[in-house]
Structure formats: structure tokens, C-alpha cells
Amino acid sequence: MKLNGGLVLLLALAALLSLFVGRHWIAPGHWVGGDLESLIITELRLPRICVGMLVGAALGTAGASMQGYLRNPLADPGLFGISACAALGAVGSLFFGLGASPWVLSLFALAGAGAGTAVLSLVAGRSGSTIIFTLAGVMLSSLAAALTALIINLAPTPFASTEIVTWLMGALTDRSWDDVWLGLPLIAVGIAVLLTTRRSLDALTLGDLAARSMGVDMRRLQWRIVIGLALCVGSAVAIAGVIGFVGLMVPHIMRPLVGHRPSALLIPSALGGALLVVVADMVVRSLPIVSEIRLGVVMSVLGAPFFLALLLRMRREMA
Amino acid sequence: MADLRFASLRLEKGGRAILNGVDGVLTHGRITAILGPNGAGKSSLLHCLAGLEVPTGGDVTLGGTLLSALSAQDRARSLGFLPQRAELHWNMAVRALVELGRLVHSGGTRLTSDDAAIVDAVMADMDVAELSQRPIWTLSGGEQARVLLGRVLAGQPEWLIADEPLASLDPAHQISVLRKMEAVARAGAGVALVLHDVNHAARIADDVLLMKDGSIVAHGPATAVLTPEILQNVFDVPFRRIVGETAFLIGDS
Predict the structure, then answer these.
(1) pLDDT digits (tens, 9 = 90+) for A165-175
(2) Which of A24, A59, B63, B116 is 20 to 30 A from A168, alpha carbon to alpha carbon?
(3) Strand locations in chain B, DSSP E?
């Protein structure tokens, strides 16, 4: 509770600071009044911050519940190919010229994420083996990447392929209130679905057999995870493109703070994810460089070494 | 009381018969040890009794109610199951781990003050009260085994069903876990254990169920079932009684 309160406070501060900061510093006196500066605040920065919070919360919760479900601290919607599948869906809709409507693009992204998660569950089957699940994730991300590359290859115009590539490297540039209203209901439902799995995730700490003996219905749990992940990851990709590693890093940082309990990890990971994305985006857009670095790229540059460090530490613990 | 009864229980996996139509009653308030050579179907029988495996044929009843007719939560409250392999996927504190046992009684993940009192009592019983805030991965195998047993008992099940609870424990911890099981039965619960060691069974079991090749060879009071002749027949190795009635020397020489 204290932790959640602290995170909410930090998030509020970061969001507030985010309103000032950017290429152009805007003092609070100019936030209202209808001039150009107030327009930057209400029509550019505010929706951008909201999209950042939504995407961060979605990815943080998705990562935490995925790690709990798979009992694998390295699980992440990006690493396991779910984001790539969502991106494939989005790119597919652009390729077929359907991307004009954001709702259609989102629908494709959701379908991609849903199909990806379902394939992952099907391949891993009821074995519950994390090794099989991990390898299935590797297979899925390569397949989604290959199909995406194929679509870029076949893209009718260089303009279309540029647009597609831009999607693959997520960013919060030029987000509008439309994106917020699109993402908010879907992500809220996704997080709510994932929150219903908390009891089962706790029981799974003791393994599959013990969890079943404690009354956990593994099939229903799997469906709730698939639907929750599809909604969270699909809509996050639909409104901001692929932003990796949030779901890996945030639960990992939060875990010791909640006593390693999987059920207690979900809400702090949502808040922490929102905080991480908002702060990272603030840094990205205030860097004095000619063209803005894309957030998805920054996250991968930060995330990959983090992942490596995690691996090395796990290897040491195993030895 | 709620006896566990199974009739014409059959289990097939991949076309292979694991249990060929076995019958029996496990009496509540007594300790039943299930013994037999590797591959006899002991764990499969235990899984069927705990409702974790759906039998191919026949049925299991708890106090007259079909196990398959119980909701998952009701079944979980009545039948506490301790798996053979200890799995501890997250490095939670010992107390938080024992608290997981109360999940079967709650809809959510919060504990009431009654829950907390039960957890305290169980931790004291299992001699893990002083380890309360220790991360579980820092405990020895014997300590972890007591914590995991405590987790099952925190659910206050009518039945404690355990699959080889003594495997991977050193002799001192084996004895201490056996004592805990004995206390559980004396406190009024039913106990069903798969054991590997005949001498452990001789030490604590009220009843013994002997299995071989998916069938029950003998089932009755321990004193009647644990005889050198029957054991030799089941395990294909000579048994000789040594000290009085409760220990056997296994093998030739």
C-alpha cells in the first residue's frame, strides 16, 4: 500500500514535470488561455503523457502477470514475440491500406497479440514446461519478424514501408486524444482481466500440481492470461508501436519491494511501468538533438543490457 | 467421518493401463501408507484420490460424495495435497508461503485475523516460527519440507495426501516429518502417504496398502500386511524381521 502510494506520487510528479519539459519550455502561466503554448500543452503534451502512462501500465502489468504465470523472471511480452505479433497485425492493416482508421489498426494489433499468445499457449500445451514455452516464444518472434519483413518487402511504395518501419520502433511522438480514448477502455479491461488471476498466480508459486490441488483451474487461468495479454499488449502496440523490455524490467525492480509475491506485483508493476515510460519519454524529447530518438529504441538499448545482467546473475545463483 | 472410498478405479495413459480397477476405503483419522515397487501406480492412485487426475473408469467418493461432483474450491478445502517434488518458484518469506495455504478458504488474497491465527499455530507446530521472515530459498531442504507441509496444514484439510514426503530428507528430518504426520492424524485428520521405505511405514502407518503392477496386493492394518512373506512377494527381494516387529532387514546376507 505504501509502495503504491509512493509510486502514484512519483508518477504524478513525473507527469507534471513532463508538461513543462520538451524542445520548448513552457511555464505554468501559459498552460491555459488558448494561445499557441497552451495548445502545445493540451493537444500535444497532455495526450502524449496519457498515452505514455497507458502503455507503461499495460506493459508493466502484462510482464508481471506473464512472469507469474510462467514462473519465469525472464518472461516479457516483447521477448516472447507477443509484441511482434501485435506489430505484425498493425503492419498488415497498413499494408492492405486499412490503417486509415485507428480502430481497424487496433483491431488488427489486438488480433495479432491474441493469436500470438494463443499460439504460444497451444505450442506449450498443458505441459507447463517453461523451456518449451520460451522456445515457442523464440519461434514466434522470429516468425512474426520474418512476416513483417516480408510485408515491408512487398510494400507498394517506399512511403508505406517507411511508415511500417516507424511502427516497429515505438514512440509517443504526435499522439493525440484519439489515441488515449482508443487505448484507455481496452487497456483498462485488459488490466482488470489480469488482476483476476492474482490468486492463481500466488498458488502457482508452489508449482502446477500444488496449484491444481488448491483449486486453480489451469485452463481458465490460461484463457484469462491470453485475453488479458492480448488486450494490454495489442492496444499498447496499436497506440504507440513496439516498446520492449518495460514488462521485463519493471516487475523485476518491483519484486523485492513486494516480498516476491506474484499477486502483489501486478499493481506496482502497472504504476512503475507508467512511471518508466513517462520519464523515459521526457528524457527522449528534451535531448538537444536534431531528430528525436525513438522511445522503442531507447528502451531496447536500456533493456538488453539489463536482460544480460539478469541472465548472468541467474547463472551465478544456479552455480 | 469422511472416508475416502474408491471403486473399480481404472486409469489409462497413452493406451497403457496404470491402474486396473482397484477398490478400497481409506479410513478417516488413520494413517494409510501406500507402498510398492517403482511403477506400481502409487502416485497415480494418490493423484486420483486427490482429484488431480480424472480416472478413465470407476469413481472416488469423499464421505459419500463423488469427488467429480465437488467444486474445485470445496475439493481443495477437504483434500490437502503435498506434491512429491518441492517447487518454490519465488523467493518469498517463510510466513507468506505458509499463508498461501489459506487461499483455499478465501476468494481473494487478503488474510483475516482468523487466518493469521491459524498460520501462527501451524508455524509453531512445524517448528518454523522463528524462520518466519527468512527468504525460503535460504532454508535447508528439511526446513523447506516443514514449511511446505505447514502450507498444506494451514488449509485445515480433512485429508492430508502426501506423495513421498520423506524423499530427499536426511534421517533426522525424516523422523521429524513423520512425527508431524502422526500428530496430524491424532488431531483427527485422515492421512494418506506414498512411502518408499517399508520401515517408515512400519513405524507410523495404521493401515498399509500394497501395490504392484497397477493392482492392490494387500490392504489392511499394518501389522497384518507388513509380513516378510507378503513384502517379499511384492518387492521380489527377501525381507527379514529384525528388532521385534517394527523393522525389516532388506535383501540377502
Answers:
(1) 777 888 888 88
(2) A24
(3) 4-13, 16-26, 31-35, 57-62, 65-66, 79-82, 159-163, 190-194, 207-212, 215-221, 239-241, 248-250
